[in-house]
Amino acid sequence: MSPSSSPAPDPGGRLKHAFIRRTLRLLVRCYLRVKLKGTERIPANRAYLLCFSHPNWVDPFLLAAFFPDDRRMFIFGPREEDMAAGWRNRVIGWSGISVPFKPSKSDLLDTTRRAMAVLNRGHVLAIAGEGRLSDREGAVVPLQDGAAFLALRARVPVVPLAIIGTRWLNFGKQVTLRVGDPISADGLRPDRAGVAELTERIQTAMETLLTGVEEDPPPGPFGRWVTDLFNERPWLNEPPPADG
């Protein structure tokens, strides 16, 4: 089966899509204020890959609720071995907007085919290019090569997006979705050199979008609880390497 013939995820009809989007907006607005910047840079009438910074678990929900594009958006992830396990995974699966993949990478080929099908059908694929949560508000973890690889395979531009303000979730805090200029994949091949070059371009663009962003102080106990409700940062608990 070629990537173009592989079935894309099924997000359901317009009614379901509108219900999910409006419900998420209502829930988010009960706690946060959301501001959009640079939306005029969003490509019109063509598929693209949206590569976003990822300080917090709430980021994909912000995109699903507030990103101003009428086309269907699919989010690459979550990383789960069994999407039928746990209520959160079942809700995500029901939404139909995710392209999950297994930590073992045993489904890598099928996941790639589904991601490619999303882009080949003219939809938007959002991917956290860092491949993990970032540790600081204004810094991007070195990007993995998945975003560049998929964009080059599908021959679509990459739109960088900085999500600012979600590292700590204070009640009533303003978070910003800042859209950058699209990055063309033209002239590059989906080989090791092309992927490395495009990844570097995306990294530079995302770092530029985060220039001047400062780290907010941690919130109180409730804000910390909301912040870390679904966050997984096991590397922060790892002991430092031994000297010598």
Quick tags:
single chain; 244 residues; alpha/beta; Glycerol-3-phosphate (1)-acyltransferase; 7-stranded mixed beta sheet; 7 strands; 33% helix; 17% strand; globular; disordered N terminus
What does this structure look like?
By secondary structure, the protein is α/β, with parallel strands linked by helices. It has a single domain (about 5-235), classed as Glycerol-3-phosphate (1)-acyltransferase (3-Layer(aba) Sandwich). Helices cover about 35% and strands about 15% of the residues. The chain has 7 helices and 7 strands; from the N terminus they run αββαβαβαβαββαα. The chain has helices at about 15-30, 60-65, 85-95, 110-120, 145-155, 190-210, 220-225, and strands at about 30-35, 50, 75-80, 100, 125-130, 160-165, 175-180. It has a 7-stranded mixed beta sheet with strand order 1-7-6-2-5-3-4, with helices on both faces. Helix 3 links the parallel strand 3 (about 75-80) and strand 4. The chain is globular, with a radius of gyration of 18 Å. The chain starts with 13 loop residues before the first helix and ends in a 17-residue tail after the last helix.
